[in-house]
Write a structure and sequence with these properties.
By secondary structure, this protein is an alpha+beta fold. The chain contains 26 helices and 19 strands. The chain is globular and about 80 Å long.
C-alpha cells in the first residue's frame, strides 16, 4: 500500500524531527516507513514501496528568500521536467487544470508559500482525504492513516449508505467509513492555507439552459485514440524495474518450467505485461503495449523493445463453462509474435468467495466488492509482469449509461433513440412483452428527462424504506435499462438491510435533495457516479491483490482518457457496439487491423455463473462468517436474514449475487479492521490508539424517517 500524507497548520514549525509538535514542545509525529519529501512548516511524506521514478520534485524558487514554490508528483506521469515546471507556474496563478493534463495516473501536490494544493483525479482512482487535526488540516491519499491519526470511530451511517445506495453520491456525501475523515469529490482539488480548508473544482461545468453544441464524432473518437495511446506510451517509456527480494529458484522441478516455478513463488516477472481476457478493453491495451510505434530506442519502434515480448495473461476458469469463445479470441490475439501468452488455469479454490478468511489478506482502506474476488485476481496477477496493464474502467468510460437516453430527449434528439431501443428489443425473447419495450423505454426516458434533481432524490428517499419489497433486478437487459432510468435507485444489498438503516439513508437523500448542487443532466450524473464507484473498487483491488514489486496500470482511468471520452457525443455513446467500434479505431490508428471474429462481444456472461459456483463452494465458511456478524451488532442487518439469503442463492434462487458480495466484503473488512494491531504513526506525539479504538463498534444511530 502506497500513500502520501501531509498537513497544514497555523504553527510555523510542525511535525518533523526537532520541531515543536502539535501537542507540546519537542513532541513529534510522523508516519511509519516514510520518506520526507519536504519539511516544516507544512511537511509532506511518501509512505510505502514507491519506486524512485514515481516521486518527482520540482522547485521553482529562483532567489534566496523568495516564497516557496514547489511541486511533488507521485505516480506514473508522462510529463517532462520542463512540462512539470510550466504546470507549477500555471498552478501558481490558479490554473489547476494544467496539473491534470499530463499522461499517466498520479497525484500532484503544490506548495506556494503557505498555500498547499492537492489535486485529485477525474475518475476517483486516486482520491484525496482530509481531516481536522491539531489546529490545522491533515490530508492523505488513503483514509485509514488519517483515521489512525485522529483515533476515529466507524461511521455506521456511511456504511449503511454504501450498502443501500452505492451508486448514489448524494447518499454517500463526502464521508468515509471513518467518522471525521472526509473525501474530496472527483474532479476537485483541496486547497489549504495555514490550516484553513477549501475544496474547488477544476473542470468546467456545462449549462443546462442551452443544449450542448454538437460534437464531431470523428474528431471525438480521434481524441480518445490519441489519449489512450499516450497513456500506454507513458508506461512504456518509464524506467523498467525488476522484482525485488525474490525467493531463490529451487531448481528443476518435474513438470514445471521456469515460469511455472516463478509463479509458484508468487512474484511477477520483469518487464511489461497485460491481461488478455478476450474482451475488447484488455486486448486493446495488450496490442498497443506490444506494438505501439514511435518509441525511441527499440527495433522498428515496437513498444516492448528488442527481443522482448509482452506477457499476455489469460485466466482460464476450469470450474465454469461458457467462456470458450473468449479463450479462443485470446488465443488468436496472442498469436501475435510480440506477445508471449501465459494461460493461468484455476479450479474451485480460485472462485469468487473462496479463501475469504479474516487472517488471510491485507487490511484495505475501505470495503469494496473486489474483496470477494481478491484471491482470484491475485492468482492471475502473480503470473504477470512488474508493470501490468488491466482494462478496468473501459465500460464505464466509453459506454453509455441507460440514463443518457434522457439526456438525448432533453436535447430533442429523438431519432438517436431508435437504434439503442431496437437493440434492447432484439435482446428480448420473442414475446408479447417485447413488443412494448420501445414504448416503455421511451416513456421512462421522458419521465426522467422531466424529473428535476430534487424531485428525483425525494422520490428515491420515499421508496428506499420499502427496498426489501422490490423484486431483484435480475431481468433482461431491457429490464435493467428501465430500472436504471432514475436519478437514484436502491443498491442490490438494500433488500437485506434493516428498516432503521434504510430509514437513515432515506434521511440522507432527503437532506441532499434540498442542498444546493451543481446542476447536471441525469445521464451524465449517473455515468459519473458509476465511474466513481468502479474507480474506488479498482483502488481497493490494488490494495487487496497487491503483489510486491508489481504495478497495475489502468489507462482507461487516466485523466486525459476520461476527459477525451467525455467529449464523445451522446448520440455515439448510445449506439450498440460503440465501445468496440471506438477501440477498433484506436487500434487502427496504431497500425493494428487484423482482429479475430467476435471481437468486442460482451464478456460478462460468465461472471454470474462463477459467482454462484463460488457461493455454493464457500457456503459453510460464509454461514460461519454471519453466525454473529458485526454488521448485525451495528444494526445494519439481521444475521438470520442474511444466512437465509446465502442458502437460497446457493440453491439457485434468483437473488442479486452482487448484493450478497457487498454484504460479505463489508463484514470481512470489518473483522479484519477489528483484529488489526498498531497504527500508521510513530513518534513521541503519535496517537496511542488505532482507528476504531478498542475494537468496539459504536452504537448505531436509530434515525427514523419523518
Amino acid at each position: 500500500m502506497r500513500w502520501l500524507v501531509g498537513w497544514s497548520s497555523i504553527a510555523a514549525s510542525f511535525g518533523t524531527v526537532g520541531a515543536v509538535g502539535a501537542r507540546g514542545e519537542g513532541r513529534t509525529v510522523h508516519p511509519v516507513g516514510s520518506q520526507l519529501l519536504w519539511g516544516d512548516p507544512d511537511p509532506l511524506w511518501a509512505v510505502g514501496d514507491w519506486r524512485p521514478d514515481e516521486i518527482r520534485l520540482i522547485d521553482a524558487a529562483t532567489t534566496v528568500g523568495a516564497p516557496v514554490t514547489r511541486l511533488a508528483v507521485l505516480g506514473c506521469c508522462g510529463a517532462t521536467d520542463e512540462q512539470l515546471r510550466v504546470g507549477l507556474l500555471a498552478a501558481r496563478g490558479g490554473a489547476l487544470r494544467h496539473l491534470t493534463a499530463w499522461p499517466g495516473s498520479y497525484t500532484a501536490v503544490v506548495q506556494i508559500g503557505r498555500r498547499i494544493t492537492v489535486v485529485g483525479d477525474l475518475a476517483g482512482a486516486r482520491p484525496v482525504f482530509h481531516t481536522p487535526w491539531a489546529d490545522g488540516t491533515a490530508y492523505a491519499t488513503a483514509a485509514l492513516p488519517l483515521a489512525d491519526l485522529i483515533e476515529a470511530q466507524l461511521d455506521i451511517g456511511h456504511l449503511a449508505a454504501l450498502l443501500a445506495c452505492p451508486d448514489t453520491p448524494e447518499a454517500l456525501g463526502d464521508g468515509t467509513p471513518y467518522a471525521g475523515v472526509r473525501r474530496i469529490p472527483p474532479g476537485h482539488a483541496l486547497i489549504l492555507r495555514e490550516g484553513s480548508r477549501e475544496i474547488t473544482g477544476y473542470e468546467p461545468v456545462a449549462s443546462l439552459a442551452v443544449a450542448a453544441p454538437r460534437a464531431d464524432p470523428v474528431r471525438a473518437v480521434d481524441g480518445v485514440r490519441d489519449a489512450l495511446v499516450e497513456a500506454v506510451r507513458a508506461r512504456l517509456t518509464a524506467p523498467r524495474h525488476a522484482p525485488e527480494s525474490m525467493p531463490q529458484d529451487p531448481g528443476p522441478v518435474p513438470g514445471m518450467g521456469p515460469a511455472d516455478r516463478r509463479a509458484a513463488r508468487g512474484g511477477p516477472v520483469p518487464g511489461i505485461g497485460a491481461d488478455l481476457s478476450g474482451g475488447s478493453a484488455s486486448a486493446t491495451l495488450a496490442l498497443l503495449a506490444a506494438g505501439l510505434p514511435g518509441l525511441p530506442g527499440t527495433v522498428l519502434g515496437h513498444g516492448t523493445g528488442a527481443g522482448e515480448r509482452l506477457i499476455a495473461v489469460t485466466f482460464n476458469d476450469l470450474s465454469t463453462r461458457g467462456h470458450e469463445e473468449e479463450l479462443e479470441r485470446a488465443r488468436l490475439i496472442a498469436a501475435n509474435p510480440r506477445l508471449h501468452h501465459v494461460v493461468v488455469p484455476a479450479g474451485d479454490d480460485a472462485l469468487p468467495f473462496a479463501g475469504m478468511t479474516v487472517e488471510s489478506g491485507v487490511i484495505t482502506d475501505e470495503p469494496a466488492p473486489s474483496l470477494v474476488d481478491a484471491e482470484r485476481h491475485r492468482r492471475r496477477l502473480a503470473a504477470g509482469s512488474a508493470d501490468h496493464f488491466v482494462g478496468h474502467g473501459a465500460r464505464q468510460v466509453l459506454d453509455a449509461h441507460p440514463a443518457r437516453l434522457a439526456d438525448l430527449l432533453m436535447d430533442r434528439r429523438r431519432r438517436d433513440l431508435v437504434r439503442p431501443v431496437a437493440a434492447l428489443t432484439r435482446a428480448e425473447r420473442p414475446s408479447t412483452h417485447a413488443l412494448f419495450i420501445p414504448l416503455a423505454v421511451y416513456r421512462a426516458a421522458r419521465r426522467l428527462a422531466r424529473t428535476s434533481y430534487r424531485t428525483g432524490l425525494e422520490n428515491a428517499a420515499g421508496l428506499l424504506p420499502d427496498a426489501h419489497r422490490f423484486p431483484p433486478d435480475l431481468g433482461t437487459p431491457a429490464d435493467a435499462s428501465l430500472a436504471a432510468l432514475a436519478w437514484s435507485r436502491p443498491g442490490p444489498a438494500a433488500r437485506w438491510l434493516t428498516g432503521e438503516a434504510l430509514a437513515e439513508v432515506s434521511v440522507r437523500l432527503q437532506e441532499a435533495a434540498i442542498r444546493p448542487n451543481a446542476a447536471q443532466r441525469p445521464g451524465e450524473a449517473r455515468a459519473r457516479a458509476a465511474l466513481a464507484r468502479l474507480a474506488a473498487d479498482h483502488r481497493i483491488l490494488e490494495q487487496a491483490a497487491d503483489i510486491r514489486s508489481q504495478r497495475l496500470h489502468a489507462p482507461f482511468l487516466d485523466n486525459q482518457v476520461v476527459r477525451a471520452a467525455r467529449a464523445l457525443p451522446e448520440s455515439l455513446r448510445v449506439q450498440p457496439g460503440a465501445r468496440a467500434a471506438i477501440l477498433r479505431r484506436v487500434l487502427a490508428g496504431a497500425g493494428i487491423h487484423d482482429l479475430p471474429a467476435g471481437w468486442g462481444a460482451p464478456s460478462q456472461a460468465t461472471a454470474a455463473s462463477a459467482a454462484r459456483a463460488g457461493l455454493r463452494t464457500a457456503l459453510p465458511e460464509l454461514i460461519a462468517l454471519f453466525d454473529a456478524p458485526l454488521l448485525a451488532d451495528a444494526g445494519l442487518v439481521e444475521a438470520r436474514v442474511v444466512r437465509k439469503a446465502l442458502r437460497a442463492a446457493a440453491d439457485g434462487e434468483p437473488l442479486p449475487l452482487d448484493g450478497l458480495a457487498d454484504l460479505v466484503s463489508t463484514e470481512l473488512w470489518l473483522r479484519r479492521l477489528m483484529v488489526r494491531r498498531g497504527t500508521c504513526w510513530t513518534g513521541t506525539a503519535a496517537p496511542r490508539t488505532r482507528a476504531v479504538a478498542g475494537g468496539v463498534l459504536p452504537p448505531p444511530r436509530r434515525t427514523l424517517q419523518a
